[in-house]
């Protein structure tokens, strides 16, 4: 195998690496606490224990406090009657039931987000074709220029890889965000029935948590633009000068950087979609 063959093999392997990184970003955006992700299963067990032993009792105390405050407010009203008392008692029971089963609601939202993410990932990865650069596209490029261009391209591709690692870090941030929100969910949901249902902090928490779950699908959509961008800029098929290939790889860097910057805003974008504050 000559130097051109080695060069083309290396370039295609690095391009395939970018595609594989996108797949791993999608898998990393999934949040499951059972099955093959046993490490996450242990983490989830700790979150459930913390919520049941510490957070839920505090949340129930808050629900009772909201109930007493509501009763005191109603008692000062001239229209207070048995109907108002029964209504407040019903809200108390509903509040206690909600905070006691808050993790079940969280698991349902996570499952919904994972379902959207899997469908999105399966569709997008099936629509983005792989890319192969052939030896013939290099024309009569000499050995010395080829080595020099190879060194510069290696630098650019390392930058690509580094940005993909940062994208993976965004997925880890999403996982931590979900775990922390899940652990504190009983307290966040404690005021669901203390005032206006739709405008309560609890409803905003549900919207925000749903946005974090939806964020996984957005991460996959954004990450899929990286191989799509590579396909867009590495499509001329004529790199006889060598510098043309270098220029096209350089064009892919801004695309990857732009995808990463948008990915950093994926959480706020998901909140806007669901109307969360």
Description:
By secondary structure, the protein is mostly helical. The chain has 10 helices and no strands. Helix 2 runs antiparallel to helix 3 (82-100) and helix 5 (143-183) runs parallel beside helix 9 (243-264). The radius of gyration is 26 Å and the shape is elongated. It starts with a helix and ends with a helix.
The percent of residues in helical segments reads: over 70%
Name the structural class. Answer: mainly alpha
Largest beta-sheet characterization = none
Integer average pLDDT = 79
Sheet-strand content, in percent, reads: under 5%
How many β-strand stretches? 0
Provide a quick synopsis of the model.
This protein is mostly helical and 277 residues long. It contains ten helices and no strands. α2 runs antiparallel to α3.
Describe how the helices and strands are arranged.
Blueprint: H1 3-29, H2 38-75, H3 82-100, H4 102-127, H5 143-183, H6 185-188, H7 201-223, H8 225-233, H9 243-264, H10 266-274
Give a quick set of tags describing it.
single chain; 277 residues; mainly alpha; 10 helices; elongated
